[in-house]
Amino acid sequence: MQSTNLDVDNNGTIEGPETSVSVVDNANRLPVNYDFDYVSYSFGGNYMLAENQSLFARYSRGGRANADRLLFGANILPSGAAVSGLSADMVNQAEVGYKRRGTNHTFYATGFYALTSEQNWDFAPAGIRQIQREYTAYGLELEGSYTLSKFNFNGSVTWTKAEISKDVINPAVEGNTPRRQADFIYNAIAAYKFGADGKHNVGVSFIGTTKSFAQDNNELVMPGYVYFNPFVNIELTKGLTASLNVNNVFDTIGITEVEEGSIVENTDNIVRARSINGRTTSLTLSYRF
Fold first, then answer.
1. DSSP secondary structure code for residue 178 in this structure
2. Which pLDDT tens digit goes with each residue over 194-237?
3. Around 178, how many Cα atoms within 13 Å sit in the side-chain half-sphere?
C-alpha cells in the first residue's frame, strides 16, 4: 500500500482527501502463495459429587486464519510465503468449575485461563498501525438463579484480569491492560409473574461494567456504567400478548469506545467516543396460534 499525494480520480488535481488516501502499490507487487494448518481440539470431563452437584474441567485450543490481514506490512516474504507464526491466531483456554442445581435455585462457578495471539491492523488516530502481540487472561465467572413462588431472579458476574503479555511492534505496552477490558462485567434479570396461572409478568433487567482503559497505553479511563431495562408482558386473550419494553430507561451515558488514548495539555481536549443507545421504548402485540 502507498498513501501520499496521489491523483486517485485522475482529474489532474490532488485534492484534500487524496493527500492521505491508500491505494495498492502496483509498482511493487509481490506474489501471495502461502498455506497454513493448525490443530483444534477440546476435551474435558465431569465428576459428580452428588445428585445435584458436580465438578468439571476443560481444555481447548482453536485458531483463526489471518488471510487478507497478512497482505499489508511486511508479513508476506518475497517468495509469497507468510512470515512464520503469523498465518493464524491461536487461542488456548483452560476452565475448571462447579455446578449445583436445586429445586428452586442454580449456581455455577467457572475459573478460566486463556492465552491468545493476535496479528491485526488498527485504524488509530495517528494512522493505520499493525498489531502483533499475545494476551494472557484469567478470571472467574459466577452465574445463578433463584425462584421463590412467583418471583424469579437470574444473574451473572465475570471478573477478568488480562494483560498484554508480549508485543513485537510496541514493547512499551507489555504488562498493560488491553483496551476496553473491564475488571468486572455483570447483568441480572428480576421478574414477577401475576394473574391467573402466572400468564402476565413484569420485571427489570440491568447490565453493567466497571471502568476500563480507552487504549493500550492505559492513560485515559472510560468510566463504568449500568443501565436498566424494565418490561411488562400482558396476555390480553388466549394467544394474544402485549409487551412493553424500555431500554436504558434512565437514559444513561455508557462509553464503550474512545479513539484517543490520552488528553494532551494545551489542546482542544476533544476525544472521539461511542456511547450505548439512549432510552428507547417499544410496544409489541403478538399472536400465537
1. P
2. 887 778 999 999 999 999 999 999 999 999 999 999 999 999 88
3. 18
> What is the 8-class DSSP label of residue 25?
-
Sign of CA dihedral 276, 277, 279, 285: negative
Characterize 43-53 residue by residue with b for buried, 16 or more Cβ atoms within 10 angstroms of its Cβ, and e for exposed.
eeeeeeeeeee
Tens of pLDDT, residue by residue over 102-118, are 999 999 999 999 999 99
CB atoms within 10 A of CB 227: 20
Nearest to 286 by CA among 230, 221, 234: 234
- What's the rounded Cα separation, in Å, for the pair 56 and 141? 14
Looking at this protein, which amino acid is placed at residue 50?
Answer: A
Are 136 and 162 spatial neighbours (Cβ–Cβ below 8 Å)? Answer: yes
Residue type, 144: G
CA distance linking residue 122 with residue 128, whole number of Å: 6
